[in-house]
Amino acid sequence: QKVAVSNYQQAVYKLAECYRHLNYPSKAEPYYAQASKFDKATFPLAPYWHGKTLRALGQYDAADSVLTSFASAGQGGNEYVEDAGREVKNLKFIKQQTTKADLHLFTVKKAANGINTSGANYAPLKINDNTYFFTTTRPDSGASKNAQFYNKVYTATFSDGVLNEVKKADIPQPAGTHQGVVAVTPNGNTMYLTRWVIGNGKKSASLYVSKKDKNKWGEPVLLDNSINKDGASTQQPCIMPDGKNLIFSSNRADGIGGFDLWSVQLDNDGNIITGTESNLGPNINTKFDEQAPFYHVASQQLVFSSNGYVGMGGFDFYASKGNMGNWATPENLGYPLNSIKDDIYFASNGGAKNMLGDVLFSSDRESACCLEMFALNKERPIKQISGIVIDCETKQPINGAKIQVVNSASNVVVSSVTGADGTYAFTSEDFDTFTSSATAEGYNPNAVSTAVITDDMITQQNLDVLCLQKIPPPLPPKVDTVIVMDNIYFAFNKAEILPESYDAIDNQIVAFMNKYPTMVIEVGGHTDSKGSDAYNLKLSQARANAVKKYLENKGIEADR
């Protein structure tokens, strides 16, 4: 009877293992739960795999409890205990991600049925405005039902989140060989691709290069041992936008661990420069697996998949800002782009400030066996931005102030005039560092900067208050101050001002009286000694009156 019980326990555990390897966590979970109650020394990993299947089923609290207990008990070997600790961190991350406030901004949908046929469909690569390469295991036309399906490269057009016009790519693709995950140089004349074989359940992959001649791709040639190391798999090429570097994934022995991302330089013809191979380093690579690189030009970010960082579980997408030789610490791109299953192979048409605005990616989140293609879009909510212009002393709003708002890229966002309440407002797709400048009659101009807000969920921002200082009235000249002005000349024996005196009156008397609006002047007229005193007195008065009338015509009040 003791042997029978032992056989029963072995059967339960092996049944759980079978379902796990077949990727049926819902069927594996109850058997692992049962096996977890058996002797811990005989089945030390039963609680570990029970926690993993609970996570795969979305039962995060239960998985957290089981894996925390397993990690605390310290049974099953250091490797599994360490991974259980990582899984507990992942579970906390999952809970935080699945309750984010911005989830309503995302739309995720499976690519059209013409793309996701039976089998795998993955690794999109944009080759022109609306055409993509992708890799698939769909059967060739005329293949028998029992024929083995091989990975091949296909093309499709992409519009409004839908892929259409699916057809096999016009590149050499021999029968009986897996081929896919391609990269093309910017000039379109050199292609790097992955070919692989599967023996004894193990994949062995290598990189090949194909050259285009007269618009036709040549037979791919295996790269030498500087890239394809003996005993290692090398795969998933990605060419940087300047065409000077190729990034790829390899599990060669001299890496940091598992599959690492590596780079090698290319010459002007797209050929490998031997001896320039380099590991992207510990800022990118972990002791686990980093795969499927993609470089987003607009935002200058390297996107790749990894199972070595805290994430949703399985392979997640991560992004590192920078360029060759200078990569920032990667950040998880979050849910719902990432799922609790494997998310790998990413392509984006999004802009510099919204890389997730237009994405194609591959995931097995809805499949029991294979990667499928999905489209994701993240909206950017319109930001409502407002400000106010006030008098610095009275704190009262200034009506009619002219406003100009400039963002951190020195682009004019808005030019406006404040209303009676001193306010101005505008909308923008981005919060930014805005500099607002204002001018108003009778005030000195001023400007103020307001720092950027990065939270997408904040849709309203008030710019810092902009106050203007009144221009103080000019001080009147001191009493008894003598101001010498040019003479005003008249035609001989007349009270008509000569034109050459107009500038003197305009630029000296009129300007001076406008500057000092309370100033009152006396105008005295003079003549020469010719003629009688009575005549000269009359002419002098007429000349003074002529100046008075001229000033009145220039806007000076008569009583001044």
Topology:
Blueprint: H1 2-21, H2 25-35, H3 46-56, H4 60-73, H5 78-97, E1 106-110, E2 121-126, E3 131-136, E4 152-159, E5 162-168, E6 178-184, E7 190-199, E8 202-213, E9 216-217, E10 221-222, E11 234-239, E12 245-250, E13 260-265, E14 278-279, E15 290-296, E16 301-306, E17 316-323, E18 326-327, E19 331-332, E20 343-348, E21 359-363, E22 372-378, E23 383-391, E24 402-406, E25 412-417, E26 423-428, E27 434-439, E28 446-450, E29 460-462, E30 466-468, H6 502-515, H7 533-553
Parallel strand pairs: 23-29, 23-30
Antiparallel strand pairs: 1-22, 2-3, 3-4, 4-5, 6-7, 7-8, 8-9, 8-10, 11-12, 12-13, 13-14, 15-16, 16-17, 17-18, 17-19, 20-21, 21-22, 23-26, 24-25, 24-27, 27-28
Would you kindly provide a written description of the structure presented here, covering whatever features stand out?
- The chain is built from 7 helices and 30 strands.
- With 560 residues, the chain is of the alpha+beta class.
- It folds into 4 domains: 96 residues, Alpha Horseshoe (Serine Threonine Protein Phosphatase 5, Tetratricopeptide repeat), CATH 1.25.40; 276 residues, 5 Propeller (Tachylectin-2, Chain A); 86 residues, Immunoglobulin-like (Sandwich), CATH 2.60.40.10; 87 residues, 60s Ribosomal Protein L30, Chain: A (2-Layer Sandwich).
- Strands 6, 7, 8, 9 and 10 form a 5-stranded antiparallel sheet that branches. Strands 15, 16, 17, 18 and 19 form a 5-stranded antiparallel sheet that branches.
- Strand 21 and strand 22 form a beta hairpin.
- Helix 3 packs parallel to helix 5.
- The mean pLDDT is 90.
